[in-house]
Amino acid sequence: MTPANPAYDTVADTTDVTALLERGRALSTPVLRAAVDRLAPPMDTVAAYHFGWIDAQGRPADGDGGKAVRPALALLSAEAAGAPPEAGIPGAVAVELVHNFSLLHDDLMDGDEQRRHRDTVWKVHGPAQAILVGDALFALANEILLELGTVEAGRAARRLTTATRKLIDGQAQDISYEHRERVTVEECLEMEGNKTGALLACAVSIGAVLGGADDRTADTLEAYGYHLGLAFQAVDDLLGIWGDPESTGKQTWSDLRQRKKSLPVVAALAAGGPASAQLGELLAADAKSNDFDSFSEEEFAARAALIEEAGGREWTAQEARRQHAVAIEALHGVDMPEQVRAQLTALADFVVVRKR
Fold this sequence. Notes:
The protein is mostly helical. It has a single domain (about 15-355), classed as Farnesyl Diphosphate Synthase. The chain is built from 16 helices and 2 strands. It has helices spanning about 15-35, 45-50, 70-80, 90-110, 120-125, 125-145, 150-175, 185-210, 215-240, 245-250, 255, 265-270, 275-290, 295-310, 310-330, 340-355, and strands spanning about 115, 120. Strand 1 (about 115) and strand 2 (about 120) form a beta hairpin. The protein is globular and about 60 Å long.
């Protein structure tokens, strides 16, 4: 299997980006862990397993806690508003809690058995705990913000609640599309804007709000985050079909196994031509198949090859580049320190060249 096409032609300053991600993780993790400690047993233990802090037997672990893009963005958001990065910590933690609430529920709904190279929560602790812990993380997110007791905290909580509702809208759309033969590119982009763009948009504005920024500044930063989210999801869609399992921690052809109407699939079906028509016939037959779960690697590989032949892979890579450019353009609408602007640009570059 070949690796996913790079969605962007330049390479971000990986040293700089790594430092930004590590700073976000270092500043937010102690507060995140303290928040998780508030949960009643066994939810605290289940959440700790999900975050990679312990293994399935409850022993301390140094698991992969994810890329930590959202916390990094929240801290930079505060700096974009002229505040110290620490002002964004409650926002970083709140967004990370909502993000992980969605992962716990998504893994269960999608039947994913692996995340970050180990068994998912529902596989280890059962579906009931995955649901309860996800709900608890969402409640904690709002608690973390509102207990600040400031006007800015109330504004931040409203933005987070709106983003969460959009995220849930996107997940509902994603599930409903799995049962439809055709989905338009516009519908797919709307779904992905809700499912991924909304929370990234919130992450990159919530720190600014907590730092005292006005709504115009926060809204402009949200535009950057929204389009960055669409670029992020386009790359995710490429990795969901052509990603290396060693890097992604998921099965080969994972999105095809779940019949997801992701951007490469939708773009290929809309392209027209022999490969597009053949793909449409196969996917229509798949939707009615009773033995889909027993398909061989070769059958999934054949579907991936048709998507690529019809142009779905290249279109999605181009869309990631386009959304990246729109995100960078939005930064010009905010008066911020040039170093912060450069760091936000570097993070955007990282999002579209990642391999997991």
